[in-house]
Amino acid sequence: MTLTVILPKVLAFLEKQHGLYIQGQWKESSGSDRLTVFDPATGASISSVPDASLLDVNQAVQSAKQSFDSGIWRGLTPCARERVLLRLADLIERDAEILAQLETLEQGKSITLSRILEAGGAQNWIRYVAGLSTKLTGKSMDVSIPLPPGARYTSFTRKEPVGVVAGIVPWNFPLLISVWKILPALAAGCSVVAKPSETTPLTLLYLAQLATEAGVPDGVFNVVTGRGTSAGEALVRHPDIAKVSFTGSTPVGKRIAEICGARLARVSLELGGKNPALVLADADVDQVVSGLALAGFLNQGQVCAACSRVYIEAPLFDKVAAGLAAAIGSMRIGPGLDEATQINPVVSAAHQAKINAYQQTALEKGAEIVWGQDVPENGGYYVRPALVLNPNDSLPLAREEVFGPVMTLTRVRNAEEGLAHANDSRFGLAASVWTTGLQSAIDLPTRLQAGTVWVNSHVMIDPNLPFGGLKDSGLGRDFGTDWLDAFTETKSICIRY
Ligand code: NAD
Q1: Which atom of ligand 1 is nearest to the CA of 272?
Q2: Mean pLDDT across the chain, nearest whole number?
Q3: Average of pLDDT values for 142-149?
C-alpha cells in the first residue's frame, strides 16, 4: 500500500466551518442545518457544509443579479475576461494537489484520477473555454427582401450574455463538471450561482475562492450548498435565473425541464446513459479488453459515458469475456489514496446499496456473474466489480443506469443484431464500435443512436468535441467552439441609413 500523505492545507480546509460563498466572501447560512461530508473509503465524517435555506438562495441570486446588472464582469473586454480565467487555471495548477486530495477524500475516486482528470482536466477545460471569450462573434447581413428605391439598411447580430446562470453539479466528477457548468457562463459574461451535490461540495467551494483570487469580481461567482430538492429547486424556480445548466440524473433533469419550461427559462441538460459497445469479429482483442476495462470500471463505473453494455460478435465472445474477466480480477481494491489500487469506494452508502441491490436481483434471477476481487469490510462504500454474461434484456441491471462497476457482455450473431440491441434503450449518450474494418468504422457510428460515438476507443472526452445526449440522455451540447452560444442570446440590430 502506498498511501498519499494528506497535506496540512487539505486538513485545514476539511476542518473549516464552511459557509456559503456569496459576494466574494464566506457567509453564514440564515439557517442552522448542515450537511455532513463523508469519506467513502471509511464512512467517517470529514467535514460539513450549510444546507442553504430559501433566504440564502435568494441572497446568492441577488448578488449575482446585481453583479450582472452593474456590468462589472460582462462589461469587461473579452480579452480581460479571458486573462482572469487563464489566471484561474494557473491557480488550479498551483493548488492541484490540494484539489486532488479533497476530491479523493469527498468522492472516493483514485488519487491518480483526481490528479489527472479532476485537477488536470479542470485546467485543460478552463484554458480552452477562456479562449472562447474572444471568439464570440455575430454576423453581418444584407436585406434579403425587395426595398423601395433609396432605402438602405444594414444589419448585424451580436451575442450577448443570457444573464444569471444556475450551474447544478453532480457528484461523480465534482470539480471537472463544476468547470463545465460554470466556466462557459463566465467566459460569455454571465454571472453564476452554482450548487454542488450535497455529497461532494468541497472542491466547488475551493474553486470559488480561487476565482476571487484570480480576479473574478465579487458577486459574479456564488456558491450555495444544500439539498437538491430544497436549495437546488429554489434556484431553478428563481425568476432571476435566466438559464439553468444542469448535469445529473434523468429524473431530476426532467423535473428541471418542466420548471424551466413553465417560466421559459433557458436550460441545458446533460443526463444519464446506458452506453453500449459493439465489438465486431475483426476487432483487435487486446485493444478491446484494455479499452473496455477502462471504459467500464474507471471511477467505479460512475461516469456518465461509461460503457455498461457490450455486444460481441460470436467468434470473439469467449476471448473478450476471458480478457475482461482477467482484467477485473487483477484490479486491486482499496482506498483512493492508495496509488496501487484500481477500484475504490463508490460515492455514498446509499449508492453502494443501490448497486448491490441491482447485483442481488441479477443473482436471484440466475444471471451468470464473473466477480472481481473481494472488497474490504471496514465501513467503506466498496462494491465488488462484476461482469454479467448474456443477461436477459429485461433484467433491470441490463436496461437501467446502474452507475457502478458492472458491465454486461452479450454474444450476438452479427453487427446488425448488436446494433439493434444497442439502440434498444431510452438513453442515447455515448457508444463505441470496435473493428479493424473501414466500412464498419464509418457506417456503424452513423446508425448508433448516441450523441458521441468512438471507434476503437471509449470515454475519450475532449473540450473541442461537442458532448451531449439524445433521447433521455439530455438536451443541448457542452464543449466545442460553439459552447458559449448556450450562454448567450442573439440580438439582431438593423440600421437604416
Ligand atoms: P442527481 O440528479 O441526483 O443530482 C445532480 C444535482 O442536482 C445535485 O447537485 C443535486 O443536489 C441536484 N438536484 C437534485 N434534485 C434537484 C431538484 N429537484 N432541483 C434542482 N436540483 C436538484 O444526480 P447525481 O446522482 O448527483 O449524479 C449522477 C447522475 O449524473 C447520473 O445519472 C449520471 O449519468 C449523470 N451525469 C451525466 C453527465 C453528462 O454529461 N451527461 C455527466 C456526469 C453525470
Answers
A1: 34
A2: 98
A3: 94
